[in-house]
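Box 3.1. Reading complex inputs
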Amino acid sequence: MAIDLGAVEAQLSTAFPGAVVEREGDWLVLDRDRLPSIATYLRDEMGFDFLTHVSASDYADHLDVVYNVYSTRPELQGPGLSFKVRVPDRVDARVPTVTTIWKSANFQEREVWDMFGIHFDGHPDLRRILLWEGFEGHPLRKDWHEPYYEEDNKPFGSRWPYPENPRPRSAEQRVHWRANVQYPQGFDPEDWDLGADYPPLFAPKVEINGIDTEPVYLNVGPHHPSTHGVFRMVVGLQGETVTNLTPVVGHLHRNHEKIGERNLWNGNIPYTDRLDYISPMYNEFAYVVAVERMLGKEVPERAEYLRVIMGELARVVNHLLTIGFQFNELGAMMTPMIYAFTEREHVLDLFEEASGARMMHNYYRIGGVYGDVSDEWLARCRKVVSRLDRKIDEFETLLTDNEIFISRSRGVGAMSWQEMVNYGVTGPVLRSAGLSYDIRRVEPYSIYESFDFEVPTYETGDVYDRYRQRIAEARQSIKILKQALNRIPATGAIMDGKNAWNVKVPDGELYSRVEHPKGELGFYLVSDGGTNPYRYHVRSECLINLAALEAMSVGHLLADAIVILGSIDITLGEVDR
Amino acid sequence: MDWVADFWIPLIKAVVVVLVLLLGGAYMTWGERKICARFQVRYGPNRAGPFGILQPLADAVKAIFKEEIVPNHVDKIIYVMAPGISFAAVLITFAVIPFGPEVDLFGQRVGLWVGDIEVGLLFLLAIAALGSYGIVLGGWSSNNKYSLLGALRAAAQMISYELILGISLLAVVLLAGSLNLREIVDFQGTWPLLVLQPLGFLIFLIAILAESNRSPFDLPETENELVSGFMTEYGGIKFALYFIAEYTAMVVNSAIVVTIFLGGWKWPALISDLHPLAGVGLFLAKVLFVLFLYVWIRASIPRVRFDKFMRFSWKFMLPLAFVNLLATAAVVAFL
Amino acid sequence: MPADYLPILFFAVVAVVLSAIAVLMPALFGPKRPTSVKLAPYESGKLPIGPARRRFSIQYYLYAVLFILFDVEIVFLFPWAVVFRDLAPRWLGLAEAAVFVLILLLGLAYVWKKGGLEWE
């Protein structure tokens, strides 16, 4: 199933003669200068209202900015349109922004600016997002090299460059490259003003009831008990009411994508575990699905069932944990959280037996899974599933009708689904606002098509509905798990062919997305036919869902902003990459 | 002047009661951690001594030997004094609470209370209000936004609920006809006031939870928004003082609830008439029960939001407390 | 009797002395290695944005004003409550207090109506 690219091209060419510069595989190359008007046309006339992915790729002679748009119209849901614009000038790279058309482009364009140095004309707030202001260079450009630079591709040669001398005990300490940080010209870290990394914030006095008051700006995070890690919000407060809120991310940045480009295709599988460390199984799922789509590889049936079982277990665990954290933010003193963790332990026991690790599983393989499971494992899994089923009921008994919870979550952070789509919000948060959009249904992957499950939705998208949405989705996952455990073939291969140590992926590029427990997790991969990805980009649903945080929080109290952040459900490992 | 009866006995009583309270507060931290842990399918402290029983001592030693940090942006004198005010106020509150009848100890007739004054209830309210100074001053002097927000919340919350506390106690005074706590206990010889004042008891319980900043009304320190609220800038022994003041306040407040509504050491008369010390045991058992209630509430329900909580206070609790007062007065007048 | 307060004075002195010792004790123990970062105000690990003491909107200052009003009134009610059982015709005492309380509640209702109990 794919979109009829020819029809789209024809329609675009009629509306904007010469808009489609070129057709490159499944991608249309659009005219850079007329991008805003073409984008408006795509959104309003052709129904592509859902821009989920913006990224870029560096080729030696030019840069490409790639976009993936989808439609939320019921008849158009499904595969979307992939297009790109070409930037020939590497020094003064400029592209018109589409933030005004799709707000979801905001953070992603900032990321492209940060990583590739492509300037987006008209962007309202084009600052670095993952790196700090003042960082030297744009690291995802192919000609940028970090201080410990060795080679472009793994496997590396010997790390120690003097084979005639014995290796020192700690290569990092006595490294011949000396300093492991590089600074821009004329930059002295000693007199760098730490406070300079936020925009001018001293808003004028406001008169309330005839009394002059000044807004107060408060850092919430990075070292704050309830920002789920090193996430920072700069909150403007009028009394205790939030007047503006700026998310600041990147404290946990490690340039996942640059490292991913140097890893082998296989070597990235365990590396995706480090993205959303709450549900690593599903990250691997997303990655192997993407690579298999590039390879056109079939996966044996038993392996598919195992993938779905692991993935859905991860989803149930993720939703329970989110609810637990949510209540922790509401001040329930950890009790629901620890109940959720208790259930997680049972699932982790299963994961551990299957994969050998409790958290960083490294279980999925390109074309299959790492290891088969025994019949006892399946029997135990059935027990765990029925236990989870009971426990979800227990959670509901304890939490759903709690008076304090309802009074604190009803109407808090509510947003219409149309607005959420514009912000690029995906996953349970989007569905809780009333749009039935689940990638397992609209663009099925693996064997999800063969399962009978519903896509639950709620109406308002407030914190309470997000809670109920997660409960409902966990129930649907249980339903899938029960079917999968009943129907899984008793025997069969778990790998397509031999488990290859090294995979060569044919030339091409693709954006592939799956329904991660937290939203749409996509991988944008470019291959030059080699053993490493040429470009490896993670479309992080956590980061993009955060774009809507300010709009959801303004006008609520500080306490609500924290709860809204919790209900968006982020993992900093994935936000910052 | 009878030196033994008028000087030494009160002094010894004061020292003993303060030490017992201190120990009670310290062990309340242990108790809460332990009970909460059981609510949450955990073990809680179990490393220092059997069942972690030495944990409070270990914590205290650690706090004492920690580096003393007085940040250089604070009002130093107030900053240092504030935890002391909080702690002292909590201790002094206990001065008027009787925890047993008169007994013969070492040949002396000793009343098991520290002070026996006519306006005990007013004294109680007055000193309890002092405790909020410690919090407000601490939050203000810290010169930190979290602390300031916490302190402001503390001020608003404490005054709102003090009002309700006072009104619910008025009904008690009406029935007992005295402000003396010992007489209020004597009044409950047959039935505890809980039976006569069920609504008043509930109002009082909620108000005292709010007054002592306990979950679900722990809004001045709300870890999840304000990091630690008014005590964000405190560390070492000063933090420990705030902390132990909070837990001692729990013990003291439980003692107040027990004295006023649960019959103190008096009820049921069957047990307390056996031996005076059995009355003390009864008092302790009741205090422990109320403390358990505190922890139970904390482990079970989420925190309310501050604006709703204030609205609840002024729009619901205050009129309700007045209704309770007038209804009680009407019943006393016409029956 | 003033002598009744003597034990309370003792108690207060013991409590205050204990608190003072606790507050001042760590000056004797514990290391002292201040650094500029340790002494900086805490704001989630970042340098604070602006000072903490600004003309800050306190949405609940009206509660404080109201509190003073009501608290003073309640003090008047305490003597009434103590002697209520001894009043000659009790219903008269009740009626008087009821009028007093109703006027108070009227005030509350006025503030309520005016939106003084709401947050901006």
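In summary: Residues 3-39 of chain B form the longest helix (37 residues).
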